[in-house]
Design a protein that fits this description.
This protein has 327 residues and is α/β, with parallel strands linked by helices. It has a single domain, classed as Luciferase-like domain (TIM Barrel, Alpha-Beta Barrel), CATH 3.20.20. Helix content is 44%, strand content 15%. The chain has an eight-stranded parallel β-barrel with strand order 1-2-3-4-5-6-7-9, surrounded by eight helices. Strand 5, helix 6 and strand 6 form a beta-alpha-beta unit. It is globular and about 65 Å long. The termini are close together.
Length: 327
């Protein structure tokens, strides 16, 4: 099976390294991903989290697109309640003018932050998402009819190939919305334990051909750690596991090193929590990881896998993507 692979980058902050360095490292991974044949390179949007440096995906998209040549670069995603649609339309039209045929616009409804950050962002209520999405699409495509206040607005620059839009989600509701709007759909299996198959089936059943997609295109998010041996991969994954445990406890700390994970005194309950979360992450040697990702994509009815690898060592992270691509 020739499975299209893509990258989701949160610009993870690791202990002992600055957040600024985490941002700069995105270029290393993006350039490697391009050389290895990955299809897309997307940035998440999170705010005021010491563990994640990807707070401004549109800025990171511009930087990485300028330092690569072919790989598609996009957002995974812009959390629309944090923004006004006109501003996002303008930003992504500008990106499309600078990098024709290479920009994706992934959008989501989650806040991507703690409530106080949403307050500081003056974020819209999550219930407003549908209207925000509709407004974004109509502004970008110039669909407002005469008589509507926005009919006279022009999203600048207008003479670009508009970026294909993807809706991110993990539910039947998001799948239905994506399908009816003729968008791509990305299911967040990298953090959601919900079976993606029903939602992706719903997406396909409701799909109406749109401007960017003549047929459905579903992406499955997958958390994965790949190394030369199963044992080495599992040791690398301990940093992600401890980080997730801390998040469950309300602590958004930089990714710990394997040594920090070794020294942590896990309770029985914490070990049980980690064991449950291990079911979400594909960990092991290249053949094991590749086959399991392919199995999950087929079982979900998806067309592409978008891989997120959050581990402490930058070199091991690069190697993980390299081994997966070669498997």
């Amino acid at each position: 099976m020739s499975l299209p692979l893509s990258v989701l980058d949160l610009a993870p902050v690791v202990s002992g390294t600055s957040a600024a360095e985490s941002v700069r490292r995105t270029v290393d991974l993006a350039q490697l991903a391009e050389r290895l044949g990955y299809v897309r390179y997307w940035f998440a949007e999170h705010h005021s989290l010491p563990s994640v440096a990807s707070s401004s995906p549109e800025v990171l998209i511009a930087h990485v697109a300028a330092h690569t040549e072919r790989i598609r670069v996009g957002s995974g995603g812009i959390m629309l309640p944090n923004h006004v649609p006109l501003r996002i339309a303008e930003a992504f039209h500008t990106l499309a003018a600078l990098h024709p045929g290479r920009i994706d616009l992934g959008i989501g409804r989650a806040p991507g932050s703690e409530p106080i950050a949403s307050q500081a962002l003056r974020a819209f209520d999550g219930n407003a998402f549908s209207s925000l999405m509709s407004e974004l699409m109509q502004l970008s495509r110039g669909l407002y009819e005469p008589g509507h206040p926005f009919h006279t607005l022009t999203v600048m620059p207008p003479d670009v190939e508009r970026p294909p839009m993807f809706l991110l989600g993990s539910s039947g509701a998001s799948a239905t919305s994506a399908g009816r709007a003729g968008l791509g759909y990305a299911f967040a299996s990298h953090f959601s334990a919900t079976d993606p198959a029903p939602a992706i089936a719903t997406y396909r059943e409701n799909f109406q051909p749109g401007e960017a997609f003549a047929k459905p295109h579903a992406i499955l998010g997958v958390a994965a750690v790949c190394a030369e041996t199963d044992e080495a991969a599992q040791r690398l994954a301990t940093t992600m596991e401890l980080a997730w445990l801390r998040i469950e406890q309300g602590e958004f700390l930089p990714l710990p090193s394997p040594e920090e994970a070794d020294a942590y005194a896990f309770t029985a309950g914490e070990r049980a929590s980690i064991q449950r979360r291990r079911q979400l992450t594909v960990t092991g040697r290249p053949k094991t990881v590749r086959e399991e990702i392919e199995r999950r994509v087929v079982a979900a009815g998806a067309d592409e896998a978008m891989v997120v690898t959050n581990i402490w060592s930058h070199e091991a992270r690069l190697r993980s993507y390299e081994l997966l691509a070669a498997a």
